[in-house]
Amino acid sequence: MTYNLDGKVAFVTGGGRGQGRSHAIAFARAGAKVAFCDFTGSFDHTAYAINRPGDIAETEKLVNAAGGECLAIEADVRSLPEMQRAVGEIVERWGRLDIAVANAGIDSYTPVQAMAAQQWQDTIDVNLTGVFNTIRAASPQMIEQRGGSIVGISSSVGKVGTANNPAYIASKWGVIGLVKAAAADLGPHFVRVNAVCPGYISTEMIDNGTLPPLFFPDNPDATEDDVTAYVNWAVHTIPAGRLDSEEVSNAVLFLSSDQSRYISGSTIDVNAGWSARFTA
């Protein structure tokens, strides 16, 4: 389906690469003006680089190439003042804000009994507090406009538990609760809040060599292909392997469009049928 977002202004956090970059490009292709932010720092406990020099510039280039007018902002979602500054820059430039996608997130795999306090705190701060800060910064402008759509990016593990990932899972469960609470608060102002729950998506968050020893601790020769085969057998009901970020962007576009104007407080799973294994 083609979505027409002409005249809309969209804001994506964590847009420097991965799913955030995909969302930003998708908005541009749909006709929206696109702002995105990303963080240029690092964390010593993630198995992948949070960003690289040139990531923000590359997303800006790709958004422009997709036909969108782009505003790239360096900002840390853990800071409410920085998110309010980012929204202020967007409104100063374009006079409105119609869509906000709270996408920024990190992951680092450690079992609960070994997780360092800072590792826990960083993950909660980015993945959950960052979503709150995005909603808190964007919602006053949307209330003033009497309309808007906010999408929080949760995860399929925001509905189930798995080993070696307590902070990430806790944060993503929290995103769903936050989205539902925000939908109740903002609904009277015609501001909708929903969540997308991606599954096994091919980005550097999982494509970094961390998963084979976690899935197969007794097999030092396990590969990423072994992990994908296991996921197709034990997790997915559609044996699709690693999904592209564009599959998530399709759901984000739907929830950002007028076609979903009466959908709020809901979640959409993009996980090749993993949802069939959930209780609800």
UniProtKB/TrEMBL annotation:
The entry's keywords: NAD, Oxidoreductase
Domain of life where this protein originates: Bacteria
Coiled-coil spans in chain: none
Annotated signal peptide: none
Gene3D superfamilies: NAD(P)-binding Rossmann-like Domain
Entry similarity comment: Belongs to the short-chain dehydrogenases/reductases (SDR) family.
Name of the molecule in the record: Short-chain dehydrogenase/reductase
Organism: Amycolatopsis deserti
